[in-house]
Amino acid sequence: MSTFLEAVVRGLGTGSVYALLALGFVIIYKATSVISFAQPALMLSGAVVTSYLVPAMGVLLFTGFSFFFSVAIAAIITAALALLIERLAIRPMVGKAVFVVAIITLGIDIAVRVVVNGFIGLGARPIGFPWGLDRVTVLGLDVQIRHLVMMGTVALVITALYFFFQRSKYGLAMRAAALDQEAAMTMGVSVGGVFALSWAIAGGLAAIAGSLLATGAGVDRQLWIVALVALPAIILGGLDSLEGAVIGGLLIGVAEALVGTYQRQYAPWLGDNVALVAPYALMLAVLLVRPYGIFGTAEVRRV
Amino acid sequence: MSTTTTTTGAPKTPRTPTPKRSLPGTARVSTKVSGRPGFYRSYSQELALFNTRPKQVAVAAVVLLGLLGPFVLEDALLRTLAIAFVFAIGALGLNIVTGLAGQVSLGHAFFLGVGAYTAAAISGDPEGRTIGFGIEEMWIWLPASGLVAAAFGVAVAPLATRLRGLYLAIVTLGLVFIGEHVFREWSDLTGGAGVGRSAATPQLFGFDFSEGTEMFSREQQLYLLMFVLMLIFALGARNLARSRVGRAFSAVRDRDMAAEMMSIDLPRTKALAFGISSFYAGCAGGLLYTVSGFFDPASFNLLLSVQFIAMVLIGGAGTVGGTIAGALFVSLLPTLTRELPAFIPLISQQVTETPNVFQVEQILYGLLIVVFLLFEPRGLFGIWMRIRIYWKSWPFSY
């Protein structure tokens, strides 16, 4: 039983980071109806910025302060990078076919990642997470501190996002633009500004997610693949649902952890590292039953 | 009303059509092309395979140039070009499903892998370390690799009929990851990650193209083989585009609902598009590694899919000539970037130094996709069209 529960906690930890990544995808999708394949590059650059900032800052105030402070700064820097990308490559394509814009983001992803890889070097860069892989016993369960930190940070960020969308002027503008761009425009909402803001938020979220993911093994060149796991998460939850993104992310995380724990025991013929593809298999299974995800709205076709 | 016009109008002289200038739709349509270029006088002429004289001449010239290649170029370049021709076959496949039928597929690498392993398994050594059936004849393993890949394509198609646009893109992306995993783990077939297996033998009626003879070197033979195969596949793709099926694909791409209203069976059309596209991908996969003779399961990753997308988009989506041009362009890009350090001293040849040729090459992939989509969405084909229109209407360029 405790093996099971520990796997669930581990899954919820990584799953909450997937949720963060998925939120980035969904926020951009809701604003611009484009899936940004540039998220992996943004995530990687956020993690790299953090890995450079933490040692530069040294130990400040209390344990972990310099890490969290660096993550916050990295989020801002990455948000600025995302803004730049949006301005240069995405804004000129407003009104073009979504597929074309999605492929543009794919091209940007490749280009940015190569540049970021240059800063990583060949091996893994330590990110300066103070607790490393240390474990702690909570309620009789042996869990890694980093998974608890992931859950805590993500809960905080999601709460902040909730208040931003529900209470702030800009959040209202973004919701309005997502609902109906033209109507929002007539009400004085700057739709271009909403596009930029959505990219900035997604960039910031990706940076936080990247830094959290790298707490275990550090930043290496393969880290970006993890960001794509958020794609099954958003498909599972539905492309246009923020709640769906969070729930989908958590589900994917738990499914991955459970497969990783039990597959060797019950289905060894599947081979090693099945956990890595479990999210995609789960996605295919869900799509066969519900083509628009669990929480997504079905597309209305008008004749 | 009609009677008044005839009586008040100018005296009518019956015009008999001269034999040379018959009206469209009449029985006497000359298939000979003459007079003003780009002016079609019948539907059959518009749908003809090579519908204008310049096109006929251009295609003949390109084929001649291609056949001359092995006698002028160096072996290293011939090898690159042979691989580029195989890539062109794969890109033509992606062009059918994405350019022609409008279904976004990021899963092309998966179908390529299926084809590569089918071909390698059929032609492989039965006594060897990996699965092999020892049938080395290409006319068996090449269609077989295409057909197995096509079967997978048709199996995926039901998802395509349920999903649209970006949902489909993500699902096909998932296919690449699952495929990569299976290829890595099924070491009896693939040799396992980091080890790989030998590829299919390009042997046709007892003649092995991968072994040099007194007359031709290995590279010259492979170049010619791949060039001819590419021509066959290109002709097939061009023919498909003008057929009933191909026009149904375009109708689905332009507006699937309108196509449905015109009684085009959407599930069937999409399944066909995926099937044919995967057939091309499977054949390309089977052929691709015969040049190098060896391949690793890690080859069939997302980057390969993106490369194919880059080929189609840089070349010009929906066009056969453009796609081939794009495939050649993308495949020759590494050869071009290798030359860069001679001109820009900042870029290093070494992998360990930061601005090196490999990084530049990858950045160029990304940036070229972006730049082409931003400034010339029709790709190389679009640039060609603009040049053509400029000279056609010169000096009245408006």
TrEMBL record, chain A:
Keywords: Amino-acid transport, Cell membrane, Membrane, Transmembrane, Transmembrane helix, Transport
Subcellular location field: Cell membrane
Topology relative to the membrane: Multi-pass membrane protein
Transmembrane intervals: 12-29, 67-85, 97-124, 144-165, 186-210, 222-239, 274-295
GO biological process, alphabetically ordered: amino acid transport
Ranges in a coiled coil: none
InterPro entries: ABC_transp_permease (IPR001851), BCAA_transport_permease (IPR052157)
Keyword Transmembrane helix: yes
Gene Ontology cellular-component terms listed: plasma membrane
Single GO molecular function: transmembrane transporter activity
Family membership: Belongs to the binding-protein-dependent transport system permease family. LivHM subfamily.
Protein name: Unannotated protein
Organism: freshwater metagenome
Automatic annotation (TrEMBL), chain B:
Chief subcellular location: membrane
Annotated compartments: Cell membrane
Record GO terms (molecular function): branched-chain amino acid transmembrane transporter activity
Membrane topology term: Multi-pass membrane protein
Listed Low complexity bias regions: 1-15
Pfam family, one: BPD_transp_2
Keyword annotations from UniProtKB, A to Z: Cell membrane, Membrane, Transmembrane, Transmembrane helix
Protein name in the entry: Unannotated protein
A GO cellular component entry from the record: plasma membrane
Annotated TM spans: 56-73, 80-100, 106-126, 138-160, 166-183, 222-241, 271-290, 302-330, 363-384
InterPro entries named among the record's database cross-references: ABC_transp_permease, LivM-like
Sequence segments annotated as region (Disordered): 1-33
Signal peptide: none
